[in-house]
Amino acid sequence: MRITVLISRIRCLILGAVFLLLYVGIVHCQNTDFNDFKQRKQQEWATYKDAKQKELADYRKQLNKEYADRMSMQWTSRHVSAAVPVPSRPEPPKPVVKTNSVPTPTRSLSVKDFVSTGTYEMPQPVQPIAHPYNEATASYMFTFHNTPCKIHLHRDMGFTLSDISEKTVAEAWKTMSQSGFDVTAYDCLGYREQLDLNDWGYVELTKTLSQHFCGEESNEAVLMQAYLLAQSGYKVRLARTDIKLVLLIPFVNEIYGYPYFSFDNEKYYLLDEKKDGGSYYIFNEKFEGEQTASLTLRKEPRFFDEHASTRTFVSRHYQDVSVVVSTNQNLIDFYNSYPITNDWGEYVHASLSRKVKRALYPMLKRKIKDLSELEVANVLLDFVQTAFEYQTDQIQFGYERPLFGDELFYYPYSDCEDRSILFSILVRDLLGLDVVMLNYPGHLATAVKFSEEVPGYYFMVKGEKYVVCDPTYIGASAGDCMPQFVGTCAVIVEIGD
pTM for the full model? Predict the structure, then answer.
C-alpha cells in the first residue's frame, strides 16, 4: 500500500515537473518572441527617424540652395531712410504736487483715440531642424550676459569671406547649410526656450555667438547671424556697401533711433548701423516661412544673477512701506541694449523680475492685506509717487528713454512714463485689476478698472469705467487728475493680457 502511494506521489512529481518545464519553455519562447518584436520595432523606429531627419535635412538644404542661388544675383541699390528720432516729451522739471483738499468731482473725461497691444506668436523654423549629433561631440562655449552657453559648433566650421560680392556671400551661405550650422541653430533655439528669451533676446544671442565665433564687427559674423535667424524662422535681409555687410531686421513695433529700409510696408532696421543717409546694395528675397520679430517681452530672461548696488525705497506717507532692493546687473544690461519704442504696453508686460518681486511683494502684501481696492491703489500710488526721485530723461540720459520696471530700482531717477509703467505692473500683479495708460501731450498717466465704485475722474473704455490714477501727481489719490489735463483728450493705451 505504501509503495502504491509512493509511486503515485512520484508520478505526480514527475507530471508537475513536466508541466513546469513546458510552462517555462512557453514563457521563454514568449519572452524571446517579445524581445525580438521589441528590438525589431526599435530598429524600425530608428530607421524611420533617421529617414525623417534626412528628409528634413535635405529639404532645408534645398531651401538654402535655392535661396543662395537667388542671393548670387545682382543686389538692388537702395538709399537708406533716416532714423525716426525718439519723440520729445516736454515734461515739467518737477512733478505736480496736489495742494488743495477740494473733493474731486466724479466726471467722465474725453478720449482722443485707442491703441491696443496685440497678440504675438514667436517665429518658428519652417520645418523642424534635424538634430542627428551625438551629445558627446565637442561643444563651443560662450557667455551671453554673463550666462554660460554651450553650442554644438566646431572651429573647423569657420569660414572666411574673401570679399562680399553677391557670389562670394551666396557660396558661404551654401557652405553653412552643408557644414552643421543647422544644428547650431537648433541649439540656439534651445537656449531661446531655456533662458526665456523673447525675439530681441534671441537676436542678441545669435549676434553674441556669431561675433564670438567669427570676430566682432566682422562680415562673417553678420552672415552667420543672418543664417541662424533665417533657419530659426525670422525675417531678415542682407545689405552691403563695398566693404561692409549689414543685417536688416523688421519688427512689428515702431523703433526709434535706427535707420531703415521700407519693403512691402515694413521697416527693416539697420540695428548695427546708426548713421543716416547713404546707399546700400540690398538682397531683398524671402526665406521660406519667415516671420516678423517683435519686442514683446512676456517672461523675464533667465540670466545669471549678478548683484547690482542695493537701494532703499520708502513711501512718504506710509513709513512701513519700505524695501531694500538689489537688481540683477545682467538683466539691467539687457534692458540697456533694448531699442526704444512707444509701445507702452510692452514695458508693462515685461513686469518685474523674480528677484525684485521677492524683495518687494511680501512687504506690500502685508501692508495691503484686508484693505479695499481703493485703499490699496492709494498705498501703491503714494509709494510710486514719493519713494522714487523724479528727473526728466533729458537730464538723466540726454534723450527720451522709457524704463522697464526693474530699472526704476536701479537708476537714480524716473519720470512720468516710468512711474506709470511701474504702477500699472503693481496694480495688475497685486490687485489683479485691468489697467490702461493715458497718453497726453508731454505726459503719461494711468487709469484702473475697479470692481468697486470709486469716485473721481474717469474714462469709458469699451463700456467699462477706468478711474484716473496718476503716479506723478504727488499727493493725489485715485480719481484725481492733474488740473492741466482735465480738459485734454487722452489716447488710451490698452495693455491686454
Answer: 0.87
